[in-house]
Amino acid sequence: MIIYFCRHAQEAESPYDPKEAITELGKEQARALGRFLSDKNIGVLYSSDLPRASQTAEIVGKILNLEPKVSEQLREISTTSPEDWTDYIQKHHPDFDFLVGGRESLNMVMERARKAWEEILRENKGKNTAIIGHGVFTKALLYSLGYKDYLIRNDHVPNTGITVLECTNGQPKLLKFASAEHL
User: In which domain, by residue range, is 13 found?
Assistant: First the structure.
C-alpha cells in the first residue's frame, strides 16, 4: 500500500472562501497533481475539509474519477490567523505543547494525524491512497511515525508537494518528502 500525502494547491488571499480558495495557478497545480497521480493506481482519495484542500481534491478527483472522502481529521493546525504560525516558528519552535494561536499544539496535531493514519490504514487495506491536506499536518504525522527531522527543521512543503509512504504490514517507509517533480 502506497500513500501519497499531497499539500493543497496555491491558496487565494482568502483561503477559507468556500467558492474560490485556490488561485488559477493553484488550479493548474491541482491538474498537474492529478495527472501525476493518474498512473499510480489510486483506489481512495481523501481530503481535509478546509476549502483550499477540498477544492484541490475536487480537481484531482475528476482526473482520477474518484469522489474525495472529506475529513476534518486531516485539517491543518488550528490557529486564529496565519501570523500565529509565523510567531510560533520565530518564538516557540520546537515547543510542541505550545498552543499556536491559543488553539492547538503540535502534539495535538500529531495525535489527530496518528488517529487519521490508523483509520485510513484500517479502512483501505492494500489500496493505494492519495490524501490532499496540509504541510504541517504531514510533517506532524511523519514525526509521530518516527521521521522527526522534517518537523524539527520545519522543512518547507511546496504547493501540491507530494510525500510518499509505503506501508507494509503496518510499517511505514518514507520514500519521498515534499516532491514537486510533477510541476
Answer: 2-179
Give me the number of domains the chain comprises: 1
Q: Given a cut of 80, is residue 123 above it in pLDDT?
A: yes
CATH code for the domain in which residue 58 is found: 3.40.50.1240
**Residues forming beta bridges with residue 4, ordered by sequence position:** 130, 164
Look up the pTM and report it: 0.94
Going by C-beta distance under 8 Å and a sequence separation of 6 or more, which residues neighbour residue 154? 89, 93, 139
Q: How much of the chain exceeds pLDDT 70, in percent?
A: 97
Q: Which of 80-89, 105-114, 121-130 has the lowest mean pLDDT?
A: 80-89
- For residue 85, CA distances in Å to 105, 110, 154, 162 come to 11, 16, 11, 22
Coil, strand or helix at 81 = coil
Q: Picking from 8-17, 18-27, 38-47, which range would have the lowest pLDDT averaged per residue?
A: 8-17
CA dihedral 74→80→25→60, nearest 10 degrees, is: 20
In the chain, alpha helices (H): 24-37, 51-64, 82-91, 106-123, 135-144, 149-152
